[in-house]
Amino acid sequence: MDYVIGLDIGTTSAKAVLFTRDGTVKAESEETYNVSHPHPSWVEQDPNEIEKAAKKALKSIVEAGVTSTDHIIVVGISSAMHSLICMDAQGNAISPSITWADGRSVHQAEKIKSTSGLDIYMKTGTPVHPMSPLIKLIWMKETNYSPYLKAYKFVSIKEYLMKKWFNQYIVDYSIASATGMFNVHTFEWDEQALAMTGIQRGQLSKPVPPTHVVEGLSNAVVEETGLSLDTKFVIGASDGPLANLGIGAINPGDVAITVGTSGAIRQMASKPQTDELQEIFCYGLTRDSWIMGGPTNNGGIVLQWLKEIVGEHQVYLAQKDEKRAYEQLVELAKTVNPGADGLLFLPYLNGERAPYWDANARGSFIGLTLAHKKEHLIRAGMEGVIFSLLTVSEALERLAGPAKNFFASGGFARSPLWLQILADVFGQEVQVPKSHQSSAWGAAWMGLVGVGEEKYLTDIKEFIPMETCYLPSEENHKVYQTLYHTFKNLYISLQPHYKTISDYQRRH
User: Fold this and answer.
1) pTM for the whole thing?
2) What pLDDT was estimated at residue 320?
3) Containing H/E element for 183?
4) Nearest-angstrom CA–CA distance, 304 and 296
């Protein structure tokens, strides 16, 4: 039997998933890596550590012994967006990988947004925000960041792998789009954006379609992974559009909702659409398809934070089993009524992206009383993530049209409670696939199309094993509708105070 691998380079881990041609998972491996915070609001990773994790994940798949490497048709690659690494002329990283969550360039973002931001957004589809490599590069230029001054190339983490493994500087359209320097109408690097960064076109990689085939795996990677020297790779795309593909949310009205460390809600589109409100992103995927939507900075990271803040006992009971600790926290949340007895949580622990694009936003519990307990905090935190996604959904529908079908993927798709909250808040049926590795399956399918084993991307709809669906409770939906109105107004009321607090935190 022939197989295909999806390699997903995420925010906190690299996952390798071995699929059959019909989308059934036969083996999977996950290797985590560290995130460092050398200064307040700085978020960095070691690209060498990420590369090692990716190779180790692939090696685990090969060693699982499910199939011979001769039966692996192709490896498709998915990765998180907005990372930035400075490279020297010898192809070595001379800076950390600065991630999407990094907030060091908030002042540069504010300045650009108030001047040429709209023009840049209308051409690139990337909202002006510290997540964007465009804004990171402007920060580097204005602060004389040493690696920037010495850099030969500026790349994302996927491009870093392409250079290390195949000695090529190439980037797929969606990763290029997410830089804020790629024109989604012409599919070329934008000269105005480049001028703002002070770098040259030649310091960026060559943009290629997501079906671009890469061959000539380095001997070192062959030895460290066990893959064959002639194993074909397809460059793939970013994790967002690949999640849509892997879950089957590819027709008009199909909406994919993904929550991992962060979260996002997305629709595919047949033409690029942006407007002056600058609330959502619009990234190129292929020459005739785009992905529109909005990310939230705060998804599973909220539950992780709650575990650290109020889950000490659950961690103790789980005896360092992270999965069991989270399960116990969710079990506590189940004991609380929908709406957490009037407790709301604005989940902006890491600032916020869509639809506000406000790096100054901060997390806030509203409505606390003496009657509220640990379980209320957990439930309110989970509900706050979904409320935040609903604000993005409303902005998305304005440009992409009404949503008809909802599909859920990512780590939260393993939580029945979180999925039921999603159905109840949105008032919509939510479909869930058997595998929560939708980005990996999207990458694998992109690989099959790239090497000619499948003809059309849209044919994947016939090969997505679905698990179940969640139906909304009308009673719960009414509760959430009432609270959601307050949730939205709270951000507007607190916005000026968030800036005051965030400025204070940066100074101290």
Assistant:
1) 0.89
2) 62
3) strand 182-183
4) 15
Rounded to whole angstroms, the Cα distance separating 453 from 447 reads: 9
Q: pLDDT of 179-200, one tens digit each?
A: 999 999 999 999 999 999 999 9
pLDDT 10s digits, 332-345: 999 999 999 999 99
**Domain 3-247 fold:** Nucleotidyltransferase; domain 5 (3.30.420)
CA 407/CA 402 separation, integer angstroms: 15
Longest dimension (CA), the chain: 64
Q: What count of other Cβ atoms lies within 10 Å of the Cβ of residue 206?
A: 13
What 3-state class would DSSP assign to 29?
A: strand
Query: Which one, of 12, 6, 3, lies nearest residue 411 by Cα?
Result: 12
Q: pLDDT tens, 205-264?
A: 999 999 999 999 999 999 999 999 999 999 999 999 999 999 999 998 999 998 988 889
* Distance between CA atoms of residues 50 and 45, nearest Å: 8
Structure tokens at 152: 């030969």
Domain boundaries, given as residue ranges, for the chain? 3-247
Residue-wise DSSP of 405-424: EEEEESGGGG-HHHHHHHHH
